[in-house]
Specification:
two-stranded antiparallel sheet
Length: 514
């Protein structure tokens, strides 16, 4: 009989990255279920270190491979468990304001303020606080730190707040909280994933003052350039188009759905096309293709470069830089980071000629993302994103067979591409279905078919034109506007199709949480 230990050893050796990723994720899920305090986590950390030390000492022995499973399980348990603990610094807003209180805050705006036509919301990194009720240091600001998500009812036009601005404002703030109803959206965890533990309300824009800090260096201001570009793109779209077109464009291009009207969001949900309003692998793939082809074309204009370097490889490597830049402009939320990491790993595989399977790429992206943001594991965004990509990966070999049709018959080739697109849509829908039911209690029966109709007009028409417009906006705003106007036709078509689909009987089905 075959030895089970040897089979496990061979399995891990053949699928090292997926095995490590599954172990790490399992540890993170265990941390979420157990909610361990600090002492048990420290014990688990010591055990993980011992296992990793043993792996290092036995690195030349294949029999040590099974130790990877418990080592990475404990690493995931500790990493996620520590992230789930609240901040322990006494100067953190979480500990300074356990109950809602009226305060004066000073700090720096971290990201693009989002405006939905009524409310403006932004995240500020606090550096000072003054309490208005019975706290010490009434004459000045106490040192404080931590991020706070602030909201206010805004006039039209909204106040001019830019990423990197320093603000002094009056607000009522407190710890972030969620509704206690089981199964509803966990707003507190959603904010904790972004390192935000406090929320607040600004009663009036009059109580808000922008000021400059001479201590801000050029380097510190430079880090806000991507968010300022993002804010400029959002403002340009809002000025040029109505709410429905501008909202969809902002979701497609910069990853912000705040300006999409509720009715339009409901249409996309009912049609099973909501994921098209998030930055995805398709965005990164299109952008990577655009930059790689453009850079290769430019470099081929030089005979010297053609003689001294392999142009396609150099173009693939150089395209990673604008891809990373676009991820920053798109807000670096979970789908964006996942799409960026997968695109980068895929490009590295192409350069090294080691792109044999998509599963190590998915595993590497999941591992790195969770190392950077451990609480992403518990969000719907992470679960839906990776479940759909894994499902697509399972039919990937079949897709390659279909796309390898070499017959000169145009009809057979068109049928193969159409069938491939339908398979991708069905696989993504089935892969994400359990998590759709878990988080949203609904799914769309017409989703796979509607994706075939909506994806071309949004992702193959409006999106490429919009990406080109972003590149042109700083140099030729008129040309950028013309491209966006052309792309708006795709948004109009998608809006009409989802509107008609949402009205069909049983287009969207509500169900119980599984």
């Amino acid at each position: 009989m075959p030895c089970p230990g040897k089979n496990l050893q061979q399995l891990i050796q053949l699928h090292m990255l997926p095995a490590v990723a599954v172990s790490f994720i399992s540890g993170g899920l265990a941390a979420g279920s157990l909610a361990l305090p600090g002492p048990p986590l420290r014990t688990a950390a010591i055990a993980a270190l011992i296992l990793f030390a043993a792996l290092f000492l036995m690195r030349r022995k294949p029999s040590a491979l099974p130790l990877l499973v418990p080592a990475f399980f404990l690493a995931g348990l500790v990493h996620a468990g520590l992230a789930l603990l609240p901040p322990d610094s006494p100067r953190h807003l979480y500990n300074l304001v356990p109950e809602r209180a009226r305060v004066t805050l000073s700090g720096q705006v971290l990201g693009m303020p989002e405006y939905d036509g009524r409310l403006i919301r932004f995240v500020m990194a606090a550096d000072g606080i003054r309490f208005h009720r019975g706290k010490t240091d009434r004459n000045g600001l106490e040192p404080a730190h931590g991020r706070v998500r602030l909201s206010m009812e805004s006039p039209v036009p909204p106040p001019d707040i830019s990423p990197g601005d320093r603000l002094l404002l009056l607000a009522t703030i407190g710890r972030a909280s969620s509704y206690r109803t089981p199964g509803v959206f966990d707003y507190r965890l959603y904010l904790a994933d972004r390192n935000i533990y406090a929320t607040g309300w600004i009663p009036s824009p009059v109580g808000m003052l922008t000021f400059s800090d001479p201590a801000d260096s050029s380097l510190s201001r430079l880090r806000f350039v991507p968010e300022r570009v993002r804010s400029r793109v959002a403002g340009f779209l809002a000025q040029r188009f109505g709410a429905e077109t501008a909202g969809i464009y902002q979701a497609l291009l910069i990853g912000s759905r705040a300006a999409v009207p509720d009715g339009q969001l409901e249409q996309f949900k009912a049609a099973g096309c909501m994921h098209l309003l998030a930055i995805s692998g398709l965005h990164m793939g299109l952008l990577g293709l655009i930059f790689t082809v453009s850079l290769a074309w430019l470099m081929k204009r030089s005979t010297r470069l053609m003689l001294h370097i392999h142009v396609p490889t150099a173009a693939a490597v150089l395209s990673m830089i604008p891809l990373a830049g676009y991820a920053f402009i798109a807000g670096l939320n979970t789908p964006v980071v996942r799409a960026l990491l997968m695109a980068l790993f895929f490009l590295v595989g192409v350069v090294l000629q080691r792109q044999r399977s998509i599963f190590p790429v998915i595993a590497a992206a999941a591992l790195l993302l969770l190392l950077l943001r451990p609480l992403a594991l518990f969000t719907a965004s992470f679960q839906l994103s990776f479940a759909s990509v894994l499902a697509i990966g399972m039919i990937y070999p079949r897709l390659l067979e279909l796309l390898a049709v070499e017959s000169g018959d145009l009809r057979s080739r068109a049928t193969a591409y159409l069938l491939s697109a339908l398979l991708v849509s069905v696989a993504a829908t089935l892969g994400s279905l359990p998590f759709m039911l878990l988080h949203f209690n609904r799914f769309s029966l017409i989703g796979p078919v509607m994706n075939l109709l909506i994806e071309p007009v949004l992702c193959l028409w409006a999106l490429p034109l919009g990406l080109a417009a972003i590149i042109l906006l700083p140099f030729a705003p008129a040309a950028a506007g013309a491209l966006l106007d052309a792309g708006a036709a795709g948004i109009f078509a998608a809006d009409r199709m989802t509107g008609l689909a949402a009205g069909l009987p049983l287009a969207s089905v509500w169900t119980l949480t599984p």
